[in-house]
Amino acid sequence: MSVTVDVRGGPPLVVPAAAFALLTVAGAVLGRAGPRPDTAPAAVLAYDLAHPLALGIGAALLFGSAFPLVVYAATAVRRIELLGIGAPGPLMGFAGAVLAGTALSVSALASWTAAQTAPLGDAGLARMLAWVWFGAGGVGFVAPLGLLVLGISVPALVGRLVPRWLAVAGLVIGVLALLSTFALATDLLYPLIPVGRFGGLLTLLAFAVALPTGRDARVDR
């Protein structure tokens, strides 16, 4: 594979993609230790009181992951434009990244607030903040992430910028992530949240490697 780099395409996509992946996985590992928001309010409050440091670190990781995601989206949009694709898809993808980053920020701040307010002893407040953390970091993040994945997969498929199987996989993951919106109506669709989260993450990593860097790039498919 021989590639000529066009510096106008921004930094290597692998850098923000890897940073986003590391922060996301680390945050997910910490998040698994906490109680589900649908458990008893007293159990949620007890966890918040016992693990303020874990909540703070998890909030910092979650909040920090929003920044490389937006950097990735901006770089990918610029890269696709340089490759001659003028469709609105990449811009819609960037809007999805901004919405997803905002949702991550809300989720992170809800987790941090839970640690700060736990000493008040209000179990109802603790459970409410847990639901905000779950909702914003779940559907609130995954559905817009699907828009980002679709925003880069569709022009990549049409313009033959990446292997066809990768573009098609991106379309499938993006649609499933968007369908997680309806998990707000029924918990039967909760499985779409991890599918969209980690499937979208893998798709972004794959695109970071496969997407050409400029008009002069020559990629052996």
From TrEMBL:
<keyword id="KW-0812">Transmembrane</keyword>
<feature type="transmembrane region" description="Helical">
    <location>
        <begin position="130"/>
        <end position="158"/>
    </location>
</feature>
<keyword id="KW-1133">Transmembrane helix</keyword>
<feature type="transmembrane region" description="Helical">
    <location>
        <begin position="12"/>
        <end position="33"/>
    </location>
</feature>
<protein>
    <recommendedName>
        <fullName>DUF4386 domain-containing protein</fullName>
    </recommendedName>
</protein>
<feature type="transmembrane region" description="Helical">
    <location>
        <begin position="89"/>
        <end position="110"/>
    </location>
</feature>
<feature type="transmembrane region" description="Helical">
    <location>
        <begin position="53"/>
        <end position="77"/>
    </location>
</feature>
<feature type="transmembrane region" description="Helical">
    <location>
        <begin position="191"/>
        <end position="211"/>
    </location>
</feature>
<keyword id="KW-0472">Membrane</keyword>
<feature type="transmembrane region" description="Helical">
    <location>
        <begin position="165"/>
        <end position="185"/>
    </location>
</feature>
